[in-house]
Amino acid sequence: MIMDGWNAAAGEIEEVALPGLRPGSLNRRSFLVGSALGLGALGLAGCSTSDGISLAEAQKLYGPVPTEKFPIPAVDVNKVNPKYFRRTVSYETKEAPGTIIVDPGNYYVYRVEDDGSATRYGANVGRAGFLWSGDAYVGRKSEWATWTPPKEMIRRQPEAAKYANGMPGGLDNPLGARTLHLYQNGTYTLYTIYATSDPESIGSGVTSGCVGLLSQDMIDLYSRTPVKTKVVVLPA
């Protein structure tokens, strides 16, 4: 097993791995974050960064994406701490270029580049009790994936039953525009790196173990990540 403490029965793993629902609420945020809210981390280990990008640069970086199957609106960058904007940073690691490294303690995802640097993205991560660490790999990729709540979630929160046969892809779908599905030894772990349209979730521990990037960031990472890419999740 690659995940610390991942010794639950299969049904329990589904509960841990997939986003949660608040009773009586079926909006996108409730699927992803449940009722927990986290605080952004204050430091960054292992990297040195330059000054943050300007608001104008951020607005351009996170502008609308009208060419998508479901046009993506611009991010309200005022709702994101500037330290979580996408940027290139110095990053020392023994991992090969292309490797994805998740740093849940600091709410970052890195894509290792080939010149001693990495592309760094702000992220949301698992809330308390749902964090995990270990090595995995991208077993498959999805664009505008269908999301299906597990049976355990439906029993716990019956309002999800209307999606028992799957929620089609779209802006309200919890998996968003792009999804990287994480595997280990040929088995789907049920954890994903997915696209979120909720800027206020970035820099928080709010999910049931999955890792979310802003849609514009996720599209960028997805486009540069082939199947079989190694993913390293650091201890929080």
Helix content: 10-25%
Please give the CATH architecture.
Answer: Beta Barrel
Q: Can you tell me the residue ranges where pLDDT is under 50 for at least 5 consecutive residues?
A: 1-50
Strand order of the largest sheet: 1-2-5-4-3-12-7-8-9-11
CATH homologous superfamily (4th level) name? L,D-transpeptidase catalytic domain-like
How many domains in all? 1
- What fold name stands as the CATH topology? L,D-transpeptidase catalytic domain-like
Distance between the termini: 18 Å
Order of helices and strands: HHEHEEEEEEHEEEEHE
* Largest sheet properties: 10 strands, mixed
Q: What is the percentage of strand-forming residues?
A: 25-35%
Mean pLDDT, nearest integer? 82
The rough form would be described as globular
Output the structural class.
alpha+beta
Rg value: 17 Å
In DSSP terms (H or I, runs of 4 or more residues), the helix count works out at 5
Number of strands: 12
CATH class: Mainly Beta
Q: How would you describe what is shown here?
A:
The chain has 236 residues and is α+β, with helices and mostly antiparallel strands. The protein has one domain: L,D-transpeptidase catalytic domain-like, CATH 2.40.440.10. Helices cover 15% and strands 26% of the residues. It is built from five helices and twelve strands. The strands form two sheets. Strands 1-2-5-4-3-12-7-8-9-11 form a ten-stranded mixed beta sheet. Strands 6-10 form a two-stranded parallel sheet. The N terminus is likely disordered.
